[in-house]
Backbone:
């Protein structure tokens, strides 16, 4: 790489002692110029070869030179060899075209670089630009004989005469520098005009602007301005996760200003992360923009109302999400409770819980939880009534586990481990003659076979019966089965798309999975007669579908627009519009040799984490990350392998690699950065994972993981990495007896404020107490109850 150094100046090749030799060189180069430059040439961005640029910075005013400031030797008078004229471009006609002019400038550079041409051929484009600037600097210094920073027609005439450049065969001459590149028409050229003439791009970015942080509130617009400036600055290119944005047809990033700014028209949490800008062709000088997205708090309290007798304990809990994490506070009847805190009245879990021991009459009141952050405020009220012989609350229909097992459906209240309802296989559907589980011809005992179930707004439960090719609908209010919806053969997987109130159904067609299909049940929460409709087939065939993935809604992400379809043995993700139920884009994973097996999604940065199937050698490639903003694969998630799970708030990624016996926990920051947290080595052979909000810290989660082969459940505190085992929960359902998915022992949480979790064994149900991290109870004689749904406040 060449650089400026003090010392001897390289003499330009125009100035030779043998004029005849100079003339021969000049004529030969002009004749062969197109060939030599076509092969190598000087770096010129396409579209920048000849343009009448307006100065990007204001040129300094130049004073007319006096007679004394002319060349000391050999001054050429205007009545010299070119004759006298009054035209600004004396001696020139209109024959010099822009194409010919560009050739002349290239020839000048080639002559200037004659000593270094061999080196220049071996350099990359970036080094050529540096060399080109050095040569133009030398050329200007040679032309500017009086060293005053100005080159005028007299000095150009001197060079023409001195180096015999007026005798060539070209229609252009050095005077065309004044014709084409004297931008302020003062009949003189400064170095900046030389730079423009020879397209020397000079860019600058102040050190204190190399990183810029932009904070926007969700729903607002944001403008990212690129601070790279300079003469002849090419168009600004924007990247996100190394993917160029300018040519993508993005819905929310759809306008690039004349000044190179990036516009995000409606900011969401998916837009957080790093963006970079650079001038086209000069990506070594770039500015990084960090976009932070603030989200106003969204709050929930539990319970909404409760009655307690004097002397017992009462607890009021508050949960809030927002970015940054909201600060929580409590009011009682509109007055801050902080001054009244005592041994009897305490705040726990970073202020997210009001704990009142030995309640008194005066504790009756409306307790308001307030959540605040930089983006806004939210609040909700939990009411407490302290009364003598407090009225026994009528046993509600909510806060129950629904367990689907061989002998029908059991509704279980987890606190006391009590059965609330048993729907037997022989029970008839409400208003119909169909039984819940008709007896099969080969069975001696009437029994049920279930696969997958989903909760519909705590109003209905949809559950598949794969051997009967249908979905049953359970009404939570009446605790009865009210409808059977026919599906394609062997329905095995359901997902409730809350954003569009529709249930997606994956059916295998047969147990060999030869004819899989996707169907949708619309208006799922409505009390209407339901039916299925097919999604759009690919290539008029349905049998490519292997699985599907639809992100779940959260407190702050209430609408999901897209899902992904996984095709059998194909290294692609098919993007699906959930509203139109049609394919809209194919994302290829072929470059990474990845056939997707499972996915997880975080709204923080909008990333999908993809677990790939083992390759032909049995090796498992690392997870891939797909950016939902650009629908582009942005690379591997380090060396992380295994099935990905995302915490409900999007802040934790837990990856389970059963082959390595490894659970890897990563955190996702509010800048959309994925950071390693800790690893847990285990031979548990994890079957399923459930997240539960922490009872000791606000804005934190714990996880419980069940085993596909053993009797223990693993507890992990995600904030600290603390680990505990809940032991002796009996053997899980055998893998060969659970063909519907890989989770032969599921573990089910009980919602945002739920204290309990349920996990089935082969013949029992186990209810765990999440607050105390221990077993609460075992319910026996419930065989293969591996389909469980939690129903909250109904």
Residues:
């Amino acid at each position: 790489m060449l650089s400026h150094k003090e010392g001897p100046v390289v003499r330009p090749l125009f100035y030779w002692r043998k004029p005849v030799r100079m003339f021969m060189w000049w004529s030969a180069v002009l004749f062969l110029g197109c060939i030599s430059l076509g092969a190598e040439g000087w770096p010129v961005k396409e579209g920048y070869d000849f343009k009448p640029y307006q100065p990007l910075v204001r040129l300094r005013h130049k004073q007319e030179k006096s007679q004394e400031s002319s060349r000391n030797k050999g001054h050429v008078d205007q009545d010299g060899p070119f004759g006298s004229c009054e035209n600004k471009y004396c001696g020139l006609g209109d024959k010099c075209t822009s194409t010919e002019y560009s050739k002349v400038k290239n020839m000048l550079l080639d002559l200037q670089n004659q000593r270094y041409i061999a080196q220049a051929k071996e350099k990359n484009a970036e080094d050529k630009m540096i060399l080109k600037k050095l040569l133009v600097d030398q050329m200007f210094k040679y032309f500017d004989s009086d060293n005053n920073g100005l080159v005028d027609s007299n000095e150009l005439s001197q060079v023409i005469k001195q180096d015999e450049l007026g005798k060539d065969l070209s229609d252009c001459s050095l005077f065309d520098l004044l014709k084409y590149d004297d931008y302020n028409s003062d009949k003189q050229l400064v170095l900046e005009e030389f730079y423009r003439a020879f397209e020397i791009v000079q860019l600058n970015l102040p050190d204190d602007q190399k990183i810029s942080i932009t904070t926007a509130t969700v729903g607002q617009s944001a403008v990212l301005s690129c601070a790279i400036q300079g003469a002849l600055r090419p168009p600004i290119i924007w990247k996100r996760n190394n993917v160029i944005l300018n040519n993508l047809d993005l819905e929310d990033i759809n306008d690039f200003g004349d000044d190179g700014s990036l516009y995000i028209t409606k900011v969401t949490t998916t837009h957080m992360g790093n963006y970079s800008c650079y001038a086209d062709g000069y990506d070594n000088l770039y500015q990084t923009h960090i976009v932070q997205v603030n989200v106003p708090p969204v709050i929930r309290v539990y319970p909404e109302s409760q009655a307690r007798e004097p002397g017992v304990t009462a607890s009021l809990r508050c949960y809030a999400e927002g970015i940054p994490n909201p600060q929580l506070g409590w009011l009682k009847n509109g007055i801050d409770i902080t001054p009244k805190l005592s041994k009897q009245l305490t705040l726990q879990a970073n202020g997210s819980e009001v704990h009142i021991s030995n309640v008194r009459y005066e504790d009756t009141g409306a307790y308001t939880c307030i959540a605040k952050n930089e983006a806004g405020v939210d609040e909700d009220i939990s009411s407490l009534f302290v009364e003598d012989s407090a009225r026994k609350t009528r046993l509600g229909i909510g806060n129950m586990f629904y367990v689907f097992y061989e002998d029908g459906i059991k509704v279980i209240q987890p606190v006391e481990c009590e059965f609330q309802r048993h729907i037997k296989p022989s029970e008839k559907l409400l208003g119909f003659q169909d039984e819940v589980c008709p007896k099969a011809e080969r069975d001696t005992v009437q029994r049920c076979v279930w696969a997958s179930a989903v909760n519909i707004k705590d109003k209905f439960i949809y559950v598949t019966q794969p051997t009967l090719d249908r979905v049953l609908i359970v009404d939570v209010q009446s605790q009865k089965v009210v409808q059977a919806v026919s599906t394609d053969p062997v329905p095995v997987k359901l997902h409730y798309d809350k954003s569009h109130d529709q249930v997606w159904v994956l059916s295998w067609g047969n147990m060999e999975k030869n004819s899989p299909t996707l169907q949708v049940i619309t208006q799922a929460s409505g009390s209407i007669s339901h039916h299925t409709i097919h999604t759009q087939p690919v290539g008029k065939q349905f049998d490519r579908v292997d699985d599907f993935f639809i992100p779940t809604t959260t407190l702050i992400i209430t609408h999901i627009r897209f899902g992904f379809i996984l095709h059998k043995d194909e290294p692609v993700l098919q993007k699906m519009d959930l509203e139109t139920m049609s394919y809209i884009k194919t994302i290829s994973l072929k470059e990474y040799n990845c056939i997707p097996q499972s996915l997880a999604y975080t709204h923080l940065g909008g990333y999908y984490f993809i677990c790939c199937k083992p390759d032909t050698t049995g090796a498992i490639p690392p997870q891939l990350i797909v950016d939902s903003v650009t629908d582009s694969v942005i690379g591997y998630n380090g060396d992380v392998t295994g099935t990905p799970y995302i915490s409900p708030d999007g802040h934790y990624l837990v990856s389970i690699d059963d082959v390595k016996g490894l659970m890897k926990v990563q955190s996702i920051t509010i800048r959309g950065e994925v950071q390693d947290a800790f690893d847990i080595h285990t031979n548990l052979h994890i079957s399923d994972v459930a997240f539960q909000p922490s009872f000791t810290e606000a804005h934190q989660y714990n996880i419980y993981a069940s085993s596909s082969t053993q009797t223990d459940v693993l507890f992990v505190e995600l904030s600290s990495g603390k680990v505990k085992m809940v032991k002796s929960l009996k053997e899980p359902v055998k893998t060969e007896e659970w063909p519907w998915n890989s989770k032969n022992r599921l573990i089910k949480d009980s919602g945002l404020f739920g204290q309990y979790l349920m996990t089935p064994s082969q013949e029992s149900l186990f209810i765990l107490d999440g607050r105390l991290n221990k077993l609460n109870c075992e319910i026996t004689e419930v065989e293969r109850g591996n389909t469980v749904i939690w129903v909250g406040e109904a």
Observations:
- The helical segments are 19-39, 98-112, 117-121, 125-143, 153-162, 176-181, 191-197.
- The first strand starts at residue 151 and ends at 152.
- Residues 301 and 318 are 4 Å apart (CA to CA).
- Residues 19-39 form the longest helix (21 residues).
